[in-house]
Amino acid sequence: METGIARHGSPEALESRLHRGTNQSGMRDHNERLVLSLVRQHGSLAKSDIARMTGLSAQTVSVIMRELEEDKLLVRQAPLRGKIGQPSIPMALNPEGAFFIGLKIGRRSAELVLIDFLGNVRSMLQNSYRYPAPRETVAFVTEGIKKMRGELTPAQDKRIAGLGIAMPFELWNWADTAGAPRDVMDEWRHRDIRADIQAQCDFPVYLQNDATSACGAELVFGRGGAARDFVYFYIGAFAGGGIVLNGRLYGGPTGNAGALGSMPVPGPDGKPAQLIDVASIAMLEKALTAKGIDGSYLWSSPQEWGEIGAELDHWIASASRALAYAIVAASSVIDFEAAVIDGWMPVTIRRRLVDAIREAIAGIDAEGLKLPAVREGTVGIHARALGGASLPLSERFLIGSNTISRGT
After folding, report:
1. Is the same domain home to 321 and 254?
2. Residue 124 shares a structural domain with residue 88
3. Which of 48, 143, 316, 379 has a CA between 20 and 30 Å from the CA of residue 277?
4. How confident is the model at residue 108 (pLDDT cuts 50, 70, 90)?
């Protein structure tokens, strides 16, 4: 059954919708979100294509696309002329249609990113630290947002549709591993960081687990193919991940589904250990520290680690074996099409890790299982920050939400 389409009115009305909160009345019409999702997935589509894909009437599709064009969310492309009939006019997303801010709060660094409606990065700021502190983080965000908004035109600034925070849940539980003072980390237990940042913003602020957010970035912005069911691993200071089912990010009732860092795997001594204690980059830094090597460059130079040597070889061997077991275990529950590996590491290291995972899986008894294709992620080191930015985009303009939390 087709849903009626309400007129949106003036540009001021659009601005009001962009800045409105997350209640049901603030959501765009289902059919409009469906059209925007399809155009994002395919790059550009004509009205006839959308009508065929959705089952909506040509008249309904025409009304939807005309209003999305009036709202400057869609733009016309060059006509495609066929042999007979009128030329087809594809419509594409307008990069200037909306803007989104993403914040990654990590255990060793914070990132703030501004993206347009296509996901292009317009601005990015980074702050490295030994451990995250709430007050300093809020100050970084306050100054960063002011700087980013100052670089936009007034018209662009009015189209900021939201900010998404990607951070580890229960960050205070990792004080010892992060090497942080417990009193500083305990501040996170009593601070509502989303509320602190919302108080400074005239657009809605969302919050999600960092690894799950990275998975959302792969889903929304990734270029890895059309897999609709995949398990995703992001290897940062700590290993984590997420799950995509039927083309949607699945967070579960509490937002903690896909907590892959807690998955039991064989440890280096053969005894059970959690994936986070084997495959995390913090384990590589620990090995370097034991050799008297300062591993801080792992966090400050993720594009290039230089020559590391035996410690890196050992970490890749241990991490790949643990990830291989995690992938096989996950496949015994859901027959994923793909297992995607991404992380805070150089592309060359990620490729080595993926190759080693494939080799390790070949040595595991997986009789009775259909194993997924193991492939590299396509978003890269900034997946968590971009995932944060994808939260308001998905919540407000696409079909299916990212199961967003609104507190810490």
Report:
1. yes
2. no
3. 379
4. confident
CB 161 within 8 A of CB 99: yes
Which of these, 182, 128, 155, lies nearest to 72 by C-alpha position?
155
**Measured distance CA(64)–CA(75) in Å, rounded:** 13
Task: Tell me, yes or no, whether 363 and 288 share the same domain.
Answer: yes
Q: Does 127 fall in a domain?
A: yes
Domain range for 276 is 225-378
Do residues 339 and 302 both lie within one domain?
Answer: yes
pLDDT one-digit tens code per residue, 244-301: 998 888 888 877 788 899 999 998 888 899 999 999 999 999 999 999 999 888 988 8
Are 85 and 124 in the same domain?
no
- pLDDT above 90 covers a percentage of the chain that reads 66
Number of domains in the chain: 3
pLDDT tier at 24 (50, 70, 90 boundaries)?
very low
Residue 407 inside a domain? The answer is: no
Query: Quick one: three-class SS letters along the chain?
Result: CCCCCCCCCCHHHHHHHHHCCCCHHHCCCHHHHHHHHHHHHHCEECHHHHHHHHCCCHHHHHHHHHHHHHCCCEEECCCECCCCCCCECCEEECHHHCEEEEEEECCCEEEEEEECCCCCEEEEEEEECCCCCHHHHHHHHHHHHHHHHHCCCHHHHCCEEEEEEEECCCHHHHHHHHCCCHHHHHHHHHCCHHHHHHCCCCCCEEEEEHHHHHHHHHHHHCCCCCCCCEEEEEECCCEEEEEEECCEEECCCCCCCCCHHHCEEECCCCCEEECHHHHCHHHHHHHHHHCCCCCCHHHHCCCCCCCCCHHHHHHHHHHHHHHHHHHHHHHCCCCCCEEEEEECCCHHHHHHHHHHHHHHHHCCCCCCCCCCEEEECCCCCCHHHHHHHHHHHHHHHCCCCCCCECCC
Pair 146, 286 in one domain: no
pTM: 0.85
Does residue 188 form part of some domain? yes
**Mean pLDDT over residues 118-129, rounded?**
93
pLDDT surpasses 70 at 21: no
